[in-house]
Amino acid sequence: RMETDCNAMELPSNTEFEEDSDYRDFEGTDVKDMRLEAEAVVNDVLFAVSNMFVSKTLPCAEDVAYINVETRERNRYCLELTEAGLRVVAYDFDQTDDRLQTPYHETVYSLLDSLSPAYREVFGNALLQRLEALKKESQS
User: Fold this and answer.
1) Measuring CA to CA, which residue among 64, 55, 69, 58 is closest to residue 109?
2) What rounded mean pLDDT belongs to the chain?
3) 81-100: pLDDT as tens digits
């Protein structure tokens, strides 16, 4: 029989990294790995764009990741994902343009909604189909 006096939430989440210099700056902070965040973003909306993937050539870090997206209109973008949100950093895959001053979007949905009318249509239709399915379920 195992007993413990502390629950897991009380333990610091970064104990195994305390000696690792790369993680020392993050001690005691709640850090998200942006690559994992980026993968989740891609999986969420891939069905509504022509192509979307996390960049393998631009560096991902704890605080930034880059996502390449090609809309159904065949426009290509490189998106930067940070705590501030998502923004377009270039008009091609695996690029960044420091001169580009585009606004941050809180969600990938609002960003793609502003870039791609076809995304808006596909996403809206998927939403309608889901609502219809839920309606049928509740009636049976």
Assistant:
1) 69
2) 83
3) 999 999 999 999 999 999 99
Q: What's the whole-model pTM score?
A: 0.73
**Number of domains into which the chain is organized:** 1
| 76-82 sheet: strands from edge to edge | 51-54, 65-70, 76-82, 85-90
Assess contact for 88 and 24: CB atoms under 8 A: no
Structure tokens at 131: 């609502």
> DSSP code of 10?
G
Above 80 in pLDDT, residue 12?
no
How far apart, in whole angstroms, are the C-alpha atoms of residue 104 and residue 87? 5
Residue 29 in domain: no
